Amino acid sequence: MSQNKLRVLFCIGVNQNFFDATPAEAKQVWGAFGVMMKGMEETPGIRVIGNMDDDQLMVGPSTTAPWTTYVLADADTLENVAAVCNLFRTTPVGESKLWKYCKIEARVGRELIIQS
After folding, report:
1. Residue 3 — very low, low, confident or very high, per pLDDT cuts 50/70/90?
2. Cα–Cα distance between 54 and 7 in angstroms, integer?
3. CA-based angle 78:45:100, to the nearest 5?
4. Which of 91, 93, 108, 112 gets the most CB atoms within 10 Å of its CB?
5. What is the pLDDT of residues 52-95, one digit of tens each?
6. What are residue 72's DSSP bridge partners?
7. Which pTM does this prediction carry?
8. What is the rounded CA–CA span in Å between residue 56 and residue 82?
């Protein structure tokens, strides 16, 4: 990895609105979540490395850390990171947007390289 790339951990939480949703609404949210994940992978300047889902050991809404899902990625710029976060504001779920049901926070740093 180039030293000027940003290492990003996208932390995604599911909020109470998802758990209060009707089954039909929850299905729409799940579909929108898939659209958002694909959008994340297709965002210019973002290279998704992998993800981790904590849904088996985390039950209920994630109001703070630990989060429900994590995505590790490299980003060219902070603007690329903001574009991924903006997917929650723009991805439709019926008459709402994804941010009604889920939230995202990004932790930005650099790859840890141990010099010997």
Report:
1. low
2. 21
3. 65
4. 93
5. 988 777 777 887 778 889 999 999 999 999 999 999 999 999 99
6. 9, 50
7. 0.89
8. 29
